[in-house]
Specification:
The complex is a heterodimer of chains A (about 325) and B (about 270). Chain A has about 325 residues and is of the alpha+beta class. Chain A contains six helices and 17 strands. Classes of the chains: A alpha+beta (about 325), B mainly alpha (about 270).
Chain lengths: ~325, ~270
């Protein structure tokens, strides 16, 4: 019976069957996507994938040992799947992925509290890379008036203790610190909020990271029992129907504000930088608008192994095509 | 698109259409005439691509219109490179015309690349994608001639048909290699762009679907010694799948990380 199972797992029929199953399975994922059902959800991804992958690896392994593959290139190509599989397993256990949100001038120390999200909370001390930096400046550039970024760079200095090195955080990578890859994946406006008492004395000054980008998007902040709904017109121009944006750039921005108290709207209006609205016994103003970046910090020791596997995959095909060196006579 | 670009682009379509007609009505067109005409179209389209590249500051990789330019140019390039006997022109050249006409339906204005596309990795990823597309199209053309040699392959002897069968298989293997390189380059760039070599995106699913579809005839030939007819049928299935799966994605409603439409939509 054992021999029968081995024979089945290494059979040519299973090879072809698994290729058909693979095509059907990924087509099924496409249909799910079309129905707006996004993986990964275990029942739709991991279970069927394992059902295909385990026999696939068994089929390849047995074929490697039974010298099913005629060409050296074929051996290399199929052995590469094991290298990729090893890389994936290492990533499953040792990949660290964390997200932090910083405004211009903000410092990231690499401590747990600096991350807004991490993939492995319980293993944080073991897996988190030693990364710290200061985000000096964020430089966005757009094509014309459109939401079409041609540049979005975060200028950083690292490590945060000495600030001796300079680097650039970009959407498509660029910066590596202590084996960790640092890139950004989100961007927006962060208005600075100044709370003053009736005599004009500052009570609190804080930068609020809000989802106000692209200009015209609405977000709110809570202040006691007040809710302040806000939209930013980054480069405003006044027309017949009110304000509109000339461009995405920050140039004398204005705020469209709606204030609710206990669910009732009590104020609506336009504020310029530094204008104050009075809420009870305090005044609130927005003296400045900064940018924020959502930064992803990833360290994945399996990544390199997967890449080596991929290179082996290509090398195998290359040898098969351009140096066809059959180890024994072709069966077919 | 500038007026020079417009003239060159529509001239490419016009001459390719005329050549398709010639190939359809005159079965015995000489190899020299064929190569000369294909060469002329290749050069005109090449100049168009060069001017557009200069004006936009990037190779034609951004959006469906530019994808169709690259795809059609690659088909012409391969026609000169691997089809010197003019055996597959009557199928491949209409493909060039259809690809270009499909591109006309989309925004033709040259635009600067958005950040995610600004990388040599993306340029080479696209280059190998179109190389794979080109080889698969030739494999498809060989398959059509193998299956329909009574009609499409009229005038071809048995020996030539057997050679075409071998060509179909080789083109398929070359396409498979180019597609694999395309995926690996894209995967590496995905690490830089998304932080992971694999993302749950329909374009990645469809890559695996098409990879498996093309792997079936490759394995069938090696393991079972499948012959020309069966390889041809599977090659056609692979091409139909690839065409539908790649070109149709733009019409589907949900966001993908790949950019087929240069008008940015917020989902």
């Amino acid at each position: 019976m054992f021999k029968g199972i081995i024979r089945f797992l290494g059979s040519r029929q299973l090879t072809i069957g698994l290729l058909i199953a693979g095509a059907i399975y990924f087509f099924y994922l496409t249909i799910l996507w079309f129905l707006n059902m996004r993986p990964p959800a275990h029942f739709m991804v991991w279970f069927p994938l394992l059902v295909i992958i385990i026999p696939f690896l068994a089929n390849v392994l047995i074929s490697l040992f039974t010298r099913h593959y005629v060409y050296t290139g074929n051996i290399l190509f199929h052995a590469a799947f094991f290298v990729v599989a090893i890389g994936i397993i290492i990533s499953l256990f040792y990949r660290f992925e964390g997200t932090a949100v910083l405004t211009e001038g903000g410092v990231f120390w690499g401590e747990r509290a600096n991350y807004v999200a991490v993939n492995k909370k319980e293993d944080f001390d073991r897996l988190a890379p030693k990364v710290s930096f200061k985000l000096d400046k964020i430089v966005p550039e757009y094509w014309g008036e459109r939401l079409h970024f041609t540049r979005l760079d975060g200028e950083v200095r690292y490590p945060a203790e000495t600030l001796e090195n300079k680097g650039m955080v970009r959407l498509n990578g660029g910066l590596k610190i202590n084996g960790a890859r640092i890139r950004h994946e989100g961007f927006g406006f962060a208005p600075e909020i100044l709370v003053e008492d009736l005599k004009g004395g500052a009570i609190r000054r804080q930068t609020a990271i809000m989802r106000l980008f692209p200009p015209g998007s609405e977000d709110y902040l809570e202040f006691g029992s007040y809710k302040i709904y806000m939209q930013i017109f980054s480069d405003p121009v006044e027309g017949k129907d009110g304000f509109r944006n000339r461009s995405m750039n920050l140039s004398e921005p204005i705020f469209k504000i709606k204030v609710q108290w206990m669910g009732q709207q009590i104020h609506e209006g336009i504020l310029k930088l530094g204008d104050t609205i009075r809420l009870g016994t305090v005044g609130i103003s927005f003296p400045k608008v900064k940018y924020w970046l959502q930064i992803e910090i990833v360290r994945d020791p399996g990544e390199l192994i997967v890449i080596i596997g991929f290179i082996t995959l290509i090398a195998g095909l290359f040898f098969r095509l351009f140096f066809p060196n059959p180890r024994r006579e072709k069966r077919a | 698109m500038s007026s020079t670009e417009m003239i060159l682009f529509y001239s490419t379509i016009a001459i390719a259409t005329i050549l398709s007609g010639i190939l359809f009505y005159f079965k015995n067109i000489s190899k020299k005439t064929y190569l000369l005409l294909v060469g002329i179209i290749l050069v005109i389209e090449g100049i168009f691509i060069g001017i557009r590249w200069y004006n936009t500051g990037h190779p034609p990789i951004f959006g469906t219109f530019e994808a169709t330019i690259s795809a059609s140019w690659m088909l012409l390039f391969l026609a000169v490179l691997i089809d010197r006997k003019a055996q597959f022109g009557r199928i491949v050249i209409p493909f060039v015309v259809l690809t270009l006409l499909y591109g006309v339906l989309f925004d033709k204005a040259g635009k600067p690349l958005i950040i995610s596309e600004q990388s040599y990795w993306v340029y080479f990823h696209a280059l190998f994608a179109w190389l794979a597309y080109g080889f698969y199209t030739f494999s498809f053309a060989g398959a059509v001639l193998t299956l329909g040699h009574g009609k499409w392959g009229e005038g071809y002897g048995k020996e030539i048909i057997e050679n075409i069968g071998e060509f179909t298989y080789k083109a398929l293997l070359n396409g498979f290699l180019a597609q694999t390189i395309m995926y690996v380059l894209g995967s590496y760039y995905s690490i830089r762009l998304h932080g992971n070599w694999w993302i749950w995106d329909p374009v990645e699913y469809l890559f695996v679907v098409s990879w498996c579809l093309y792997a079936i005839p490759v394995h069938g030939k090696i393991l079972y010694g499948w012959g020309g007819q069966r390889i041809a049928r599977l090659s056609i299935l692979g091409m139909v799948g690839t065409m539908f799966l790649y070109w149709s994605l733009i019409y589907l409603p949900w966001a993908t990380y790949h950019i087929f439409d240069v008008e940015i939509k917020i989902h």
